[in-house]
Every structure is written in structure tokens, then in C-alpha cells.
């Protein structure tokens, strides 16, 4: 452990020498942008680092995806989110967050990957990316979880026909498509692909569709399964994936089905390799949350915070954009509080 002071006055000389930031925000999604807005409102010298495109996770959502949340619950920065329907689409969300970045003139470095973090002299953190090295007094990790799928860890998972992200139904028209999973994403994918002309089979680990599937999806998928339009194997896991078939194991034993494509909608998890490279401690339990103060969101590392859905660890269905919109303000207020205490 080590401590670091966030006094701007005491650090002016160091900042000038090393170009030290007040805060570096890792992740350019809605939470990262919201943290940047809060930092900018307080006059802090900040920078957002994003390894992909702006709001990279949303960009990877299915092309025709509709959010479960209403547009007003996705708003940040006091800028209205105007959508054509009750629930906005992926396209509308991308446009909205582009407008947020432009309206607030948020400083975001895209396609810049954080590789590691080390403590530097005087309580300053040194952050190394694939392009350069930065120095900062505080760090916010707001990387979400959608970039890291939960793998099946079965032979053949590396084949090109296997995807952990759903894009568009068009490639699967007339094809034997296996959808793995039974939560919202899996059910939504199975239905859309079926309606567009795919021959859909589902492999479901449990004995039923996930009980918390959205109320407007659940009856539809259950009826399609009941009538046989979508074939579903319950209490079934994938054993092996091959070029033209998949081997499954169910209550009656091991069997093989014809297959052209596999969509593994098995969920996602935080990028734990990044957290390890940053030195952020992780709880050693099933939830695997980054260890942090739930009131200030500060981790066990002084002046290093987590924000957004990352705070829930493996419980990825607990936090969303709509119930983490205050994280930026919470973190920045804690930083300002420390500045005032250091200056007193």
C-alpha cells in the first residue's frame, strides 16, 4: 500500500515536469463519459483512454438491438436522449453518445489500450498504454464487461463458425444455427434468427428458459419451442464443436446434431486481466468484485476507483447504465474532498 496526495497546488511543479493529469479514466463508454463530464465540471485535468471505438460495448451490440431501458434512463450530461420509440435502438444510442462527446468536448483517446499501471514517486501513478506513458494522481476504471465473453472452454470453440457476439441475422438464413444459452440475449437471438429464416436449435444448461427473461420475450420463445419451430434441448451442454456438427450431452447421453454456425450467448464478464495489470485487488468469491468502498467507489489502491457495471463483478445483471449514472459525481466529489483536505 502507498498513499498519494491529490493537492493540485502541491503538485503543480510535478505536473509541469511530467505532464501529470488529475485523473485518467479507462473506458470510453457511457460511464467513462459521465465521469469525464463530472471531472470537467470541477475543472480537473482529465483524459479518457478507450481501447476501441467510442462506447465500444454498445457498438458491439446486435445491429437491430433495442434497449430494455427507456431513453430518459440512459441520459447523461443533462442532454436529452430523443428516440423514435419508447426504447431506443443501438443506432440511436451510438448517435446520442457521439453527441454527448461532441457537446461536452470530452477528451478521448480512441484505439489506445492500457497495458499496465505502476506507482511513481510522490504518490503519482504511471499508466503505460500501447502508445505512450501517462502520469496521473487518480484513476477511474470504467471498462464494463461486454468486451470479455464467458467462454465454453470446449474443443472447436476457436472455429470461425463460432461467435460470442451476435451481429445480424442475415448470415444465418437457411443455415443450421445453434444458440447456446437461455437468458434475454439468447432468446432474442433465437427468435430473430428464426423469423429471418434460420433453422434454430437451442442448447440450454437448465431445465427451463431463464425465469427473468423479459416479459415480452418469454411467451414468444416458449411458444416457438412448444410448437417445434425452434428445437430446444434442456439440461444440455456442449461437448465439442466441429466443422459440420456439434456434439451435445443431455439427460439421455451424448448425441450429435448438424450445424453450420454456433452463437454462444453465454454472457460476459469484466476484463480481469486488465484489473490484474493495474494491480486492483479482486474479491476471492463467486462475485469476484473489484474490492472497493461502496460509498466512494475507491478500490484498495489509494485514489484508484471503479465505476459503472464493473463494480458488480460477475453479477453482470445487477448494474446497468441507468443505476450507475451517479458514479461519476460520487468519484469526483471524493477527489475534490481529498484536495481540500490536503490543502487545509
Explained architecture:
Helix content is 24%, strand content 20%. It is an alpha/beta fold and 344 residues long. It is built from eight helices and 16 strands. It folds into two domains: 12-148 and 268-343, FAD/NAD(P)-binding domain, CATH 3.50.50.60; 162-264, FAD/NAD(P)-binding domain, CATH 3.50.50.60. A five-stranded parallel sheet has the order 3-2-1-7-16, with helices on one face. A five-stranded parallel sheet has the order 8-15-9-10-11, with helices on one face.
Helix and strand layout, with pairings?
Blueprint lengths: L11 H7 L4 E4 L3 H12 L4 E4 L6 H4 L30 H15 L3 E2 L4 E7 L3 E6 L3 E4 L2 E3 L20 E2 L12 E5 L3 H12 L3 E5 L14 H10 L3 E3 L3 E5 L3 E6 L2 E6 L2 E4 L7 H7 L25 E3 L20 H17 L1
Parallel strand pairs: 1-2, 1-7, 2-3, 7-16, 8-15, 9-10, 9-15, 10-11
Antiparallel strand pairs: 4-5, 5-6, 12-13, 13-14
Helix pairs in contact: 2-8, 5-6
Return the CATH class of the largest domain. Answer: Alpha Beta
In whole angstroms, how far apart are the ends? 24 Å
Low-confidence stretches: 1-17
What structural class do you assign from the helix and strand content?
Answer: alpha/beta
Overall strand count: 16
Instruction: Please give the count of helices.
Output: 8
List the secondary-structure elements in sequence, H or E. Answer: HEHEHHEEEEEEEHEHEEEEEHEH
- How would you describe the shape? elongated
What is the name of the CATH architecture of the largest domain? 3-Layer(bba) Sandwich
For the biggest sheet, the summary is:
5 strands, parallel
**Percent in strands:** 15-25%
Q: What is the assigned CATH homologous superfamily of the largest domain? A: FAD/NAD(P)-binding domain
Chain-averaged pLDDT = 92
Give the spatial strand order of the biggest sheet. 3-2-1-7-16
